[in-house]
Amino acid sequence: MVTLAEVAQHAGVSASTVSYVLSGKRSISATTRQRVEQSIRELGYHPNAGARALASSRSNIIALMIPLRTDMYVPVMMEIAIAVATTARTHGYDVLLLTGEEGPDAVRRVTGSGLADAMILMDVQLDDERLPLLRGTDQPSVLIGLPADTAGLTCVDLDFKATGALCVEHLAMLGHRDIAVIGEAPAVYERHTGFAERTLDGLRARSQELGMRLLHRPCEGGYDAMAVTLARIFDERPSTTGFVVQNESAVEPLLALLRQQGRAVPEDVSVVAICPDQVATQASVRLTSVSIPAQEMGRHAVEQLAAKLDGRGSDEVVLIAPELTVRASTGPAPTATH
Amino acid sequence: MVTLAEVAQHAGVSASTVSYVLSGKRSISATTRQRVEQSIRELGYHPNAGARALASSRSNIIALMIPLRTDMYVPVMMEIAIAVATTARTHGYDVLLLTGEEGPDAVRRVTGSGLADAMILMDVQLDDERLPLLRGTDQPSVLIGLPADTAGLTCVDLDFKATGALCVEHLAMLGHRDIAVIGEAPAVYERHTGFAERTLDGLRARSQELGMRLLHRPCEGGYDAMAVTLARIFDERPSTTGFVVQNESAVEPLLALLRQQGRAVPEDVSVVAICPDQVATQASVRLTSVSIPAQEMGRHAVEQLAAKLDGRGSDEVVLIAPELTVRASTGPAPTATH
DNA sequence: AAAAGCTGTCGAAGCGCTTCGACAACCTAT
DNA sequence: ATAGGTTGTCGAAGCGCTTCGACAGCTTTT
Fold first, then answer.
1. Residue A49: pLDDT above 80?
2. How far is the alpha carbon of A207 from chain B, nearest alpha carbon, in Å?
3. Digit-coded pLDDT (tens) for B186-211
4. Rounded to whole angstroms, how far apart are CA atoms A302 and A294?
5. Which ranges carry the HTH lacI-type domain (chains A, B) (predicted)?
6. Is the CB of B55 under 7 A from strand C?
7. Could you give the percent of chain A with pLDDT greater than 70?
8. Protein CA A27 to sugar C1' C16 (Å)
9. Cβ contact, residue pair A99, B113, below 8 Å
10. Which of the four CATH numbers 3.40.50.2300, 2.60.300.12, 3.30.160.70, 3.40.50.300 does domain B160-291+324-337 have?
């Protein structure tokens, strides 16, 4: 393995000079710089990560905690992870992948060992056990998601409340009055994962304001669960003409069942989905949807951290404004047409 | 930040003694050990990762290179990544997430900088540019996937050739004679990603042996692409009664289109999928499938590496035997029933 | 012409840990 | 009782880097 000292010798300068060429923290004459860079290239030198971390107290690593369970939003998680990794590289950081498995201990371990300079947490519960630890350390962190109390924290998330409102507004504008919400699996609500409840808040508040009737049913993914849920909905409120779906794995079952029951989309019922664009465009009906900007969230989180690590940036909550794209799954409410 | 020296002082021993308590590399009396462990707990000590890496030339980190593109097998990638991360932790390793973006440079960077002790590579091309680099370093690595030349490499993968054969056998046993393969997107074949071609090899070889006729059509995911592909297949070979699907995002479109055309599954046509179990059980028809053992591959890869890093283990190719689970999408060929 | 200020480079200290050799203290075999 | 082992602990060196202070050699100011 090539060391700094070897590069220095090869270039005929001292070790510190090479270090300053690398870091740019002191001015170096053009000729010396070139000579050093040449030596670096010729010898194929890569600075040793451990030594660097030890000497500078900076690992240039960002830790990313992803949820262990894969009961929801797998493609979203993946997209975020990839966006985080690629964005981090452009800022000179690598990404350490931690699963939720260790729980709060992972936070202790990472901050205590100096393994990473900063952390990104996903799958944040409203009252997450990791939050006190984050508040008690001076290591920067960003949450993707929104806990109940955001004081002293930096968060990035889609504005799910506005998302809920937006879905309702779109359906209202089309004349729908009775709408049903196919929610996430019950477990997601029990866990108090913020986004599900916030969406529901938005849906409820706006539908009330607009004088609409709303039915909310959590739903596991898959056909059987969906069949039961759908039957119940039409049983309780046969006049339902609008659906909002917030569960990727319920989308296709819902469409198939509606089709099977002879209810045409969008002529008889309209469906709005809250899902990544990819799902919306690949479904059997091209879905009107509010997209989940996974990449943007991941990128934003890293940029916040990079700013904080540079001494810039501060704590703030960034809620990304939802955007609804009209596709082929929504249309005027049937009663509104005559 | 608490240091080894502070722990040593607190426990009234030397730094090296604390180090040996931690590593277990020399015998320590029970009383001393307990005193040290007590101090560690009281002070909340975590060894500094950088210092440890520098002194021991071991980072206790495994690098995982995942593909940047998300055009296939997203849930599989995710499952592998999670399995790798959790298994790594049980062996005392953390996982560094690298995307394919950097290409071969990532390998150079990681091995050169001592960032990681070992690497796991996914999305391996038949003639991958990273392979020469891996062969030229003494850093252990494992490929998830199979390149053309495996000399000097350790690989883990599903035995896709046997998988292809198994699918054909199952359909043959049910009396099907004309079968169609809905393959991965054309780009996957062009990239020469081994698994797709190996599956095809297995399908072709076994169907020839069994005197069956086989049609192979690559297919992008989604409804439109599937509609075109399916039309072409029934056009060219109307007698087709068996399908093998190797593209998750083609599964649901295929089923929907068949249903729409009045072809009952499994009465008129049978469908065998090659996909994770989760997809097979959540589809609109419970699919007979060969599962992709993502977790097992991830776990196995880490265990191979852990063994190598312990000086045990050696280069070998492990092909996991496919298992076909019969569900509700396959049945006797229609002509075979009378 | 002296003082003051830059610029570019160097030497040395030290980051927190692992690990090697040394050695005291004890135990066992002769 | 002595030589030869064990066992448990310590001190010191050193891993490869960053960074601070020093300073030589300039240029600019007074």
1. yes
2. 32
3. 988 888 888 999 999 999 999 999 99
4. 13
5. 2-56
6. yes
7. 98
8. 30
9. no
10. 3.40.50.2300
